[in-house]
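sry for the spam today, last one i promise. C-alpha cells for design, 124 residues
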C-alpha cells in the first residue's frame, strides 16, 4: 500500500502562488487515482482536484478551475498541485489522497489512502 507525504504549503499573500507536492512510496503508485482535498477550520473536507492514473485526465472543483493545476509524474511517484491566484478563502489544510478504484463521485469517501496534510494560509 502506498504512503503519501505532502509538502510545499506555507504563508502567501493574496494573488500569490504555491506548488504543493505529494510523494508516494511503493511500486504501485501509478495504479491509483490521485486527488487533492482541502479542509478549512470548521468546514468539511472538500474536493479540489483529481488526476487519472496516466495523468491525461484531470478534474477540478468549480472554485479552483482555471487557477489550480494538478499533475503527476509516475516515474517519480509524485503528484503536484500548482495553486495560482490564491485567495484568502483558499486557506486550508491540503491533503493528498489515493483511490484504488475509480471514484463514482468526487467525495473524499472514495479515497482509501491519505497523507498528513500541508497548511496553506493566504493573507489578504
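last one done:
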Amino acid at each position: 500500500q502506498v504512503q503519501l507525504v505532502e509538502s510545499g504549503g506555507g504563508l502567501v499573500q493574496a494573488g500569490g502562488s504555491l506548488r504543493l507536492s505529494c510523494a508516494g512510496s511503493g511500486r504501485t503508485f501509478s495504479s491509483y487515482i490521485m486527488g487533492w482535498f482541502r479542509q478549512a477550520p470548521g468546514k468539511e473536507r472538500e474536493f479540489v482536484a483529481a488526476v487519472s492514473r496516466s495523468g491525461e485526465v484531470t478534474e477540478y472543483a468549480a472554485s479552483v478551475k482555471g487557477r489550480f493545476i494538478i499533475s503527476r509524474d509516475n516515474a517519480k511517484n509524485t503528484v503536484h498541485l500548482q495553486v495560482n491566484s490564491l485567495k484568502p478563502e483558499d486557506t486550508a489544510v491540503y491533503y493528498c489522497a489515493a483511490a484504488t478504484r475509480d471514484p463514482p463521485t468526487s467525495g473524499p469517501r472514495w479515497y482509501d489512502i491519505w497523507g498528513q496534510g500541508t497548511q496553506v494560509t493566504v493573507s489578504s
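The chain has a mean pLDDT of 96. ok im logging off now
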